[in-house]
Each structure stands twice: as structure tokens, then as C-alpha cells.
Amino acid sequence: MTLVIRNSTELQEKVAAWKRSGMLVGVVPTMGALHDGHLSLVKTARAQSDRVIVTIFVNPMQFNNTDDLAKYPRHEERDLTLLEAAGVDVLFAPDVTEVYPDGFATTVSVSGVTAPMEGEHRPGHFDGMATVVAKLFGMTQAGSAFFGEKDWQQLQVVKRMVRDLNLPITVVGCPTIREEDGLAMSSRNVRLSAEERALAPELHRILQEVAAKLRAGQAVESALAEARAELAAKGFGAVDYLDFRSGESLAPLEAFAENGRLLVALSLGQVRMIDNIAV
Ligand code: PAF
């Protein structure tokens, strides 16, 4: 049975009792509209913890676009059914006023890894994300936290913040879960039309094609330019970025490197898609 808690004091009392009896507590932070990608994070969390908390909070502070916030899918009842079936102990689903009470005045701002890509295209997003994640770590008091590699830059930002602030939590990155046709699972995929949904997996195929070219020694710039042209020809919308970068520092790479990662963000219809793969 999954207990739903909306109040952080109640949550902290529960977690303190678990910890007193020596239990390891894991948290999976989410914004809800759960899919198999989230459930695989829960599975890893369950394998590595004695008790698992999933948080659902659509964090207004990390949306730089009010339309995206308004349209973000919300299905708490359905999510709860999935969490029950997945054996989650607590669903923590606070209201906005519980997370940001009157007088809330703190922003966590990570520099460096936040600058390129999402940082350029979604001003303020990472401040909002880092602030709420720090807040959720404090509210849940968990010992480990599980994040998907699909949001690769987000994962690097969270790891940087935890190191820099000596937060007593271990951050675990978990592989991206894909549909059978290669499309990375995302809560936003439900907003794709049938035609867009049919085209969407081409993104992953094209990323793999670029990776193969880079491994074969093709120059980075020309491999990326060919991919951009192919994406446009297939019918994808504006590409915010398609970059080859160091997986950890996110510095741009000019030639193949072992830890290199291809990262992309583009639009397809009304939906902004992101994806990344190791090269
Ligand atoms: O990845 C997400 O769903 C969100 O950015 C997170 C980590 C739950 C913070 O709101």
C-alpha cells in the first residue's frame, strides 16, 4: 500500500523512524504523468533501498514557458495506481505552498554545466530545477536519489550541486528507457500527433548514425551538419542544439573521445523533445 503524504513534517517523521531502524531510504523525484521510464527508476530504487519515496511535484519554478507548464500532463490517480503496483512506500505530492511557502527566498544556482544547451534555451530552468531538487532532498531526507539519464544535463547539474554543497545523498543515474522503436520515453510524448509519433523514433536512429560516423573517424562538424540536414528533411522542427560534448563537464568535443555524448533538443509539432546517447 502506498501512503500519500502532502506535508513535509509528516514525511520527515516517517523517514526518521525508518532510519532509526537502520533502513536505507531512496527517492525518485518526478513531475508525475508516470511512464515505464519512471517505473524503471523505481525498480532500481527498490533494488538499492529498503524504503522508496516517489515525489510528484510539477515545479512552476523550472518552467520558463507558461504554456508548457499549463499543458504539462497531470494524472495523480493513475500515477498512484502505478506506484502501488510498483511497491512504492510513499508518494510525496506536496502543494505549491508546501514547497514554496510565503517568504520563500532562496535560489540554488549552479554555474558551468548549466550554461550550454538547456541553459541557453530555457533561461532560469536549471535554477528552478536545482532549487526544487535541493528542497526535495531536504524534505525527504533520503540517502539516495534516482534520476534518468534521458535528462543528461540535469543529472550532471544535480551531481555538481550535491558535490558542491556536500549534501548527504548519493545520486544514481539510470539508463534511458525507450519504446521498442527507439523513442525515449517522456511524459510529453502523449502530446505528439499520430504522424509526429511515427516520425519521432527517427531522432534516435539519426543519433546512432552520427555516433557510428564519429566512431569511424568522421569530423564532428560534418557529422553533425549531415544529421541536422537529415532531421530537417524528415520533417522535424527547429533544432535548439545538436552537440557532441564531454559526458561529465559538458565541454564541446572536436574529435571522438571515449566519454563523448551526443545531446539534442528539437521541436516536433508542439512538443520539445530531448535525447542523448553515449558515443
Ligand atoms: O526530471 C524531472 O522530472 C524534474 O526536473 C525533477 C527532477 C523532478 C525536478 O522537478
List key phrases describing it.
279 residues; alpha/beta; globular; binds pantoate; 2 domains; Pantoate--beta-alanine Ligase, Chain: A,domain 2
Topology:
Elements (H helix, E strand, L loop, with lengths): L2 E3 L2 H13 L4 E6 L5 H13 L2 E6 L9 H6 L4 H10 L4 E3 L3 H4 L18 H4 L3 H16 L3 E5 L3 H13 L5 E5 L19 H6 L2 H14 L4 H15 L4 E8 L13 E9 L2 E8 L1
Parallel strand pairs: 1-4, 2-3, 2-5, 3-4, 5-6
Antiparallel strand pairs: 7-8, 8-9
Helix pairs in contact: 7-8, 10-11
Main location: cytoplasm
Subunit structure: Homodimer.
Organism: Thioclava kandeliae
Can you walk through the features of this model?
Its main location: cytoplasm. Homodimer. It catalyses: (R)-pantoate + beta-alanine + ATP = (R)-pantothenate + AMP + diphosphate + H(+). With 279 residues, the chain is of the alpha/beta class. It is 41% helix and 19% strand. It has helices at 8-20, 36-48, 66-71, 76-85, 96-99, 118-121, 125-140, 152-164, 194-199, 202-215, 220-234, and strands at residues 3-5, 25-30, 51-56, 90-92, 144-148, 170-174, 239-246, 260-268, 271-278. The strands form 2 sheets. Strands 1-4-3-2-5-6 form a 6-stranded parallel β-sheet, sandwiched between helices. A 3-stranded antiparallel β-sheet has the order 7-8-9, covered by helices on one side. The termini are far apart. Pantoate binds at residues 29-31, 59, 62, 129, 132-133, 151, 154.
